Amino acid sequence: MSFISYLINGISLGSVYAIIALGYTMVYGIAKMLNFAHGDVIMVGGFTIFFAVSMQGLPPVAGILLAVVLCTLLGITIEYIAYRPLRQAASSLAVLITAIGVSYFLQNMALLIFGANTKAFTSVVTVPAIKLAEGQIMISGETIVTIISCIIIMIGLTLFINKTRAGQAMLAVSEDKGAAQLMGINVNGTISLTFAIGSALAAIAGMLLCSAYPSLTPYTGSMPGIKAFVAAVFGGIGSIPGALIGGIVLGIIEILGKAYISSQMADAIVFLVLIVVLLVKPTGILGKKIQEKV
Amino acid sequence: MKGLKLNKNVKDNLITYGIVIIAYVIMQIMINTGHISSLLQGLLVPLCVYVILAVSLNLTVGILGELSLGHAGFMCVGAFAGAFFSRYMEDVIEVSLLRFVIAIIIGAISAGIVGFLIGMPVLRLRGDYLAIVTLAFGEIIKNIINVLYVGKDSSGIHFSMKDSMSLGLTEDGDVIINGAQGITGTPKDATFTIGIVLIIITLVVVLNLIHSRDGRAIMSIRDNLIAAESIGINITKYKLMAFSISAALAGMAGVLYSHNLSSLMATPKNFGYNMSIMILVFVVLGGIGNIRGSIISAVILTLLPELLRGLSNYRMLIYSVILIVMMLFNWSPKLINLRKKYSLRRLFKKTGEVR
Amino acid sequence: MKKKVVSLLLAASLVTAMLSGCGNSGSSDAGTESAGTEEEADDAQQTQTDASNAEEGSDETPAEGSGETYKIGAIGPATGGAAVYGIAVQNGADLAIKEINEAGGINGSMIEYNFQDDECDNEKSVNAYNTLKDWGMQILVGSTTSGCSIAVSAESANDNLFQLTPSGSSVDCIKNDNVFQVCFTDPNQGVGAAQYIGSNGVAEKVAVIYDSSDVYSSGIYEKFAGEAANQPFEIVSSEAFTADNKTDFSVQLQKAKDAGAELIFLPIYYTEASLILTQANAMGYEPEFFGCDGLDGILNVENFDTALAEGVMLLTPFAADAEDEATKSFVSAYEAAYGDTPNQFAADAYDAVYIIKAAIEQSGAAPTDSASDICDKLKAAMTEISVDGLTGEAMSWEAGGAVNKAPKAMEIVDGNYSLIQ
């Protein structure tokens, strides 16, 4: 019995990783950059909802909308100021470093505005928990909402990329920026759009992360951000279904590792499994094989 | 003219050594005449640590061309190995310099071995996947150190991965590595002079490697792996060579770090991925593959937060802004063009002789 | 090449800035710090520019106190994950110093105050200490966290500078004879908690959830587990979490539940504890919870459903809701000045300043004495004084540095702390 409840806990945790990983993998797939600030955009989303709903008393829907709008604008601004000037830079590492700078900036800005005290986030999810086997096993409302959101977002993103002109433009940009430009695609606009969508997803992830684990500090986003990045790599970074699978697998490994091996070594176990997976399948579970040309 | 050109490398290296030695002499003069603040004096050894880390990571990132996010893990191995030795031998070897030198060697070798063991399986991954695997190893190392308990008593050394009670030490026992509480009371053997000597050693190793036959082989892997393989370069061997040397040097920096502070703990702050990323920031800001740049940017970025102390609570905010601005200034193609247009050298060229 | 020149220029300018900083001699802005964080920042900035007057004081000890003021420095994390504790110490000490200055200072001399950020990093803490030394610090309140305190105590012992750590609870903090503690030591808390649970028969089966990557938490856990062997209860499950893995506690709680624990001992900070309480409630598990002083503050987590904390017991020296006059006036003054409810760290720092005041008055150390002389005098005085503070009545010290005070066992009833007799 306890195994099943561990498994369900793993899926709950994994679904949170998955929803963050979706944003990561989306930006990586198109813009080919690791956006280390993604976790901190999630934190901004969480704080916006906290501010709107818990402090100003707005209805949750308004709070979520506000967070989505604000994070979208934030994402576009960050891209414009910190990433765009370096797109043609000699090394792709340069933009990784500015992303870290942005991450520090957002954390410290939140620290100055909201202070260092922990805030308890009121869950905006009102779906009741499902209880099975006389209450021995419980699936929380947050988990249900998170998993459903993950699936909707995954399908939505896949449809968007494959069926719309803007989505096709994104694919083209991710394949070859130069050629896309020659075909009349607005590369800057497309990448801005990618960041806008990625950041909007971050706002939703922020809402779900903070609903599931209701404590909010300026550093709330950074650690789940890194874990989600690992999950995205697990699933094959750039692959949208991969992010979902990677996230959930990571969550399950983490919980089972804690439960059956050692709670002190949970991180080491997760990372060890990651290494083994990557050594067997160097581009992740659903990653594309890269053909190297001379 | 041709002779001069041939010696360009030598000249370049001499400038690098020169900068280090001049910096050392200036600092020594300042210390001896008392014109130095306690803050700066306290920062001298950390500066050496970060310079060594930056230069050694540059070997992996700049020369080998692989992104590593686990450099702090090697530093951690070196720091704990070295500090353990010093604590263990504190009563046996009385001469602190001798003890410290042995500790450095032990730290460097153990980090090098760990680097070698990790490098063997993972170096066949490429790009971001290698980055994430090195990050993972760094975190694993930190995690293991946090649950490692080692103590000594009259009957020898005891290990445990659970807690210090299960070491079963006798009354006179001494817990040396106490899990998350780390090692306390490491003798403070690190000095600025030793730090500078270690920087010079690092530079000699790295610069000589770069300009040797092996170094050219390593760089050929970076520039084109398939072409390098096709002319018979042993990819695995050279990758491992660069990676382990880089790890060993990081371990050396770790020993220096651990002997500068009386308490050593593996926290996310000093040995986690944050630190690995910070070292990467030094390397990228200074110019990938540019050893001198690494030294300068490590010094600037270590001093910067201290200089910004006057800003009180706005300190880290301003630090992040400066970091972003410096990155844009150093790397943005537009700004680079702009700088070229208005550079001093160009102005000089206009007025005077054209070379 | 151009890049290098620019970098060099940058480096040069930074170094010059640093050196010229040393050249300035300090003009003091003693005791005129006005309220409000904006101005405080400015003040600190000013202090900083005047700071490193180490022109002549470069050697071991800072120069003789410049003028008629005591210079008290404080160190703690003002940024980073542990910022909440450092900022509390910053404000708590600030409040006490303002009060003392308004009331006419110590023996008529004002106090100057300077707080430095250490980001909860041992190395940065030593940097902060050196910065304060350059400023001319005579007495140190700090560091806030155990690891940093240990690192700094090696330096302060070398300089023979009096150090009083408000909240560094490890025994290693007070190894040197110039360092004293305001808070309980970890062993004291761990053993105390085990004895309390045992002698009051609170529970027979106990589970522990602790942070194995944290000095404070693992320190208490060890002593608790050691003492538990002598007590009439049994530890049925002890599970850890780490700094990188502290959002999901379902496994730890499930194990405690499966083992049939009636009580969960939480030697951790309240941020994680609030999550544990929430998650235990969500899974319908209702054991008793028992914590140490790190748990204090849980009722002040903004927006936290305090009903979850109902019945939680903790051994803590301070509670912001206590009814006595001293606590009430401290809490209201703190809230007015900083817009936050003070936690135990703020109270410890507040007490630290008053303890220093008492020790100075006892010993007659003058502001014009050197830091080393002040240290010698205060060391002797510390063992002679007894201070009634927010965090304990009749606190006294052994020469070793540990404090003698009685822990108070509190229980949360109706969203308030109430003393268990």
Automatic annotation (TrEMBL), chain A:
Q: What domain of life does the UniProt record list for this protein's source?
A: Bacteria
Q: Which GO terms describe its biological process?
A: D-alanine transmembrane transport; L-alanine transport; L-isoleucine import across plasma membrane
Mainly localized where?
Answer: membrane
User: Which parts form a coiled-coil structure per UniProt?
Assistant: none
Write the record's keywords in alphabetical order, separated by commas. Amino-acid transport, Cell inner membrane, Cell membrane, Membrane, Transmembrane, Transmembrane helix, Transport
User: What molecular functions are annotated in GO for this chain?
Assistant: L-isoleucine transmembrane transporter activity; L-leucine transmembrane transporter activity; L-phenylalanine transmembrane transporter activity; L-valine transmembrane transporter activity
User: Membrane topology type, per the record?
Assistant: Multi-pass membrane protein
Quote the subcellular location field of this record: Cell membrane
- Pfam families, alphabetically? BPD_transp_2
Would I find Membrane among this entry's keywords?
A: yes
Q: Name one GO cellular component term.
A: plasma membrane
Q: Where are the transmembrane segments?
A: 6-27, 34-55, 61-82, 89-106, 144-161, 191-216, 228-253, 259-280
- Protein family membership: Belongs to the binding-protein-dependent transport system permease family. LivHM subfamily.
The protein's name in its UniProt record: Branched-chain amino acid ABC transporter permease
Q: Which organism is it from?
A: Parablautia intestinalis
From TrEMBL, chain B:
Annotated GO molecular function terms are: branched-chain amino acid transmembrane transporter activity
State the GO CC annotations: plasma membrane
- Pfam families (alphabetical): BPD_transp_2
Compartments where located: Cell membrane
Which InterPro entries does the record match to this protein? ABC_transp_permease, LivM-like
Question: Which key words are in the record?
Answer: Cell membrane, Membrane, Transmembrane, Transmembrane helix
- Which spans are transmembrane here? 14-31, 43-63, 69-88, 100-123, 129-151, 190-210, 279-304, 316-336
| Membrane topology (UniProt) | Multi-pass membrane protein
Source domain of life: Bacteria
Q: What is this protein called?
A: Branched-chain amino acid ABC transporter permease
Instruction: Name the source organism.
Output: Parablautia intestinalis
TrEMBL record, chain C:
The segments labelled Disordered in the record are: 23-72
What keywords is this UniProt entry annotated with? Amino-acid transport, Signal, Transport
Q: Residue span of the signal peptide, if any?
A: 1-17
**Looking at the record's lineage, which domain of life comes first?**
Bacteria
GO BP of this protein: amino acid transport
Describe the location of the Leucine-binding protein domain by residue ranges.
69-404
The family database entries (Pfam families) matched by this protein are listed as: Peripla_BP_6
List, alphabetically, the InterPro entries matched.
BCAA_transport, Leu-bd, Leu_Ile_Val-bd, Peripla_BP_I
Q: Which PANTHER family does this one have?
A: LEUCINE-SPECIFIC-BINDING PROTEIN, PERIPLASMIC BINDING PROTEIN OF ABC TRANSPORTER FOR NATURAL AMINO ACIDS
Which family, according to the similarity comment?
Belongs to the leucine-binding protein family.
Protein name as catalogued: ABC transporter substrate-binding protein
Organism (species) = Parablautia intestinalis
Q: What is the lineage of its organism?
A: Bacteria, Bacillati, Bacillota, Clostridia, Lachnospirales
